[in-house]
Amino acid sequence: MNLVLDIALTHVRFRARQTFVAVAGVMTGVGFSIMMASLMEGSQADFMRQLIDALPHITVSDERRDPQAQPGEIAYAAARIYGLTPETRRRGIKNPMASLASLERWVPGAVAPSVQTKAILRYAGRDVAANVTGIDPHREPKVSALAQQIRQGTLASLYRATNAMILGDRLAEKIGARVGANITVQTSDGARLNAQVVGLFHAGIRSVDESTAYVLIKTAQILAQQTGLVNEIRVRVSDAMAARTIAQRIERETGYKAVAWQEAHEDLLSAFVVRNFIMYTVVGAILLVASFGTYNIISTITHEKTRDIAILKSLGLREATVRRIFVIEALLIGLTGTLAGWALGYGLIAALGTIEFKMSITTDLTRLPLIYSPLHYAVAAAVALGSSLVAGFFPARKAAGLYPVDIIRGAT
Amino acid sequence: MSEAAQIDPAAGGAAKAPLVQARAITRILPGLVPTTLVHDIDLSVCDNELVAITGPSGSGKSSLLYLLGLLDVPSSGEVKINGRATAPMHEEERAFTRLSTIGFVFQFHFLLPEFSARDNVMLPMRALGRLSAREAAARAEALLAALGLAEHAATRPDQLSGGQRQRVAVARALANAPPLILADEPTGSLDSKSSEQVFDILRDLVDRHGKTVVAVTHDLTLAARMDRRIELRDGGIVADDGAA
């Protein structure tokens, strides 16, 4: 075995207790940082998944991002026209079936028509405002997770009754309705119909669960008092991360406002940046504390080994060789701690994965959302080894710089 | 292999000119009040000499030894090893010269406590890297055997007596077959029997193996049995019965 490695190994082996404490420090740092990263990123990924899955990736509405230019403005580019009242436009996407067919040709994923309208649901003397969404039960499962979110009934139940309706479970709870209940639905335009609750769904996002009701497209069109109305196209793309780019293209091609899930939840996504910063700061702090342990042990060893260092140097070992001995000792501690920390981290994540929780603030979780990512292990190892290297380097440099005569004189 | 060959495979060559030469060397420790350790030392030590450096405590004996052994650098003057000036050498070259040309024996054995006697003896050989691990181990065992420690090769220093430890230290000093052995009070911490053993070994190194030994000692009886005596007082040589 290489002399430097042999001496380093002997030093750490003969100081088993101190070495164990230092290794335990690195192990704890690595293990808990992996667990923290897994937990934080897992919860973030879970939240994102719910956000992405709960609703279509892109919604194309019948609005335009910029107000349409007036004919006068188009005709006279130099003119500036004030006080114009835009003409009353007919609601909905123009020629929706053609638009759907056009999108289906190139969008990687699925598209489905829907009708968005707002109404008051009335049952047992209680009135609650709700977004009533008209959907096509055949196409909807391809663009949203509604089919999996239904707790009672099925999407096909919408065909089982006249004006059938599937309510968010919290909405149903608010008005006190159950499956089978007949409720009254009334819009601000005066349209009114009686509907039967045929199912309940649970998206896991409170705002959705307490204010959304699904009906057939034709029922929504009746409520909107506009036959053939389609005022929203729902799109689910095969790569959710590409939604923003695809939305931009849809917007360019159709002229209608296409909102990707990233845009819809921009505030949340920017909150994640802050959250990640906090997470990595905490993880870094844990590893930094662990590196102090390594620094402490290497300092102690070099202090205790002052006489040996003098001997080695008097025998003719070079400064760089002596420095390498102590740096390798630090790396041995760091490496052993890292390997043990990986095992600890894995074990902690596995243990946390068995704990069940019931949370109901924004999402419902039965288990902690955790992620097993090799990146977490790699980052923790890199930081642990890096900090061990730094922690070992300074005592090593001090040790290597010792003047052997001073120590030998002091010892004799 | 003969005992002589075990201690120095290259033994038996023709005698050469001064192995160590010191010319007007002075060592002053800097500080608020600078301390002069040795001053104006002129000294030549030839091959096959057993030299004693004597003098009262604080007379500069050990300091002179460290200067001759390149462990310390003179404030002025020059030390030559094998005719080569050491002043222009950088630290790495000085370290290599120590490793290959000089063997040190200190008053306290200064063995690495975690390593066996054999590993301690192998250390300079492994650092120099001229022998394979197997060859180094074989040579270490041969050296220990030559010094009467064959059965203690695997023993750690804390399980050896003072005399045995010092013999291991001598074996370590001989590991790379250096022509020059510098010993700082090699018998200072030993009882009379062990002292006698260590002295006999040093004597033997000179007489039978062609080594040059410079030993610092307080023991005037021991010094009287050496080839040459250099007496120091207040950092300067006051007597040298071998001076030309």
Structure description:
The complex is a heterodimer of chains A (412) and B (244). Chain A has helices at residues 3-14, 16-54, 71-75, 96-106, 140-143, 146-149, 169-175, 206-209, 217-224, 243-254, 261-264, 266-304, 306-315, 319-353, 374-400, 404-411, and strands at 58-61, 109-123, 126-135, 150-152, 164-168, 182-186, 192-201, 212-216, 232-237, 258-260. In chain A, α2 (16-54) packs antiparallel against α12 (266-304), α2 packs across α14 and α14 packs antiparallel against α15. In chain A, β6 (182-186) and β7 form a beta hairpin. Chain A has a 6-stranded mixed β-barrel. Chain A is elongated and about 105 Å long. The mean pLDDT of chain A is 85. By secondary structure, chain A is α+β, with helices and mostly antiparallel strands. Chain B has 8 helices and 10 strands. Chain B has a 6-stranded mixed beta sheet, sandwiched between helices. In chain B, 49% of the residues are buried. The interface between A and B is medium-sized, with 27 and 33 residues.
Summarize the structure.
With 412 residues, chain A is an alpha+beta fold. In chain A, 56% of the residues lie in helices and 16% in strands. Chain A has a six-stranded mixed β-barrel.
Give keywords.
heterodimer; A: alpha+beta; six-stranded mixed beta barrel; 16 helices; elongated; B: 244 residues; six-stranded mixed β-sheet; four-stranded antiparallel β-sheet; 8 helices; 10 strands; globular
From N to C, what is the helix and strand string of chain B?
HEEEHEEHEHHHEHEHEE
Question: What is the beta-strand fraction of chain A?
Answer: 15-25%
Spatial arrangement of strands, main beta sheet of chain B: 6-7-8-3-9-10
Low-confidence runs of at least 5 consecutive residues of chain A? none
> How many helical stretches of chain A?
16
Biggest β-sheet description of chain A = 6 strands, mixed, barrel
Instruction: Extract low-pLDDT stretches of chain B.
Output: 12-16
Shape of chain B: globular
Write down the oligomeric state. heterodimer
What is Rg of chain B? 17 Å
Helix content of chain B: 25-40%
Strand pairing plus helix content of chain A: what structural class?
A: alpha+beta
Question: Could you give the order of the helices and strands of chain A?
Answer: HHEHHEEHHEEHEEHEHEHEHHHHHH
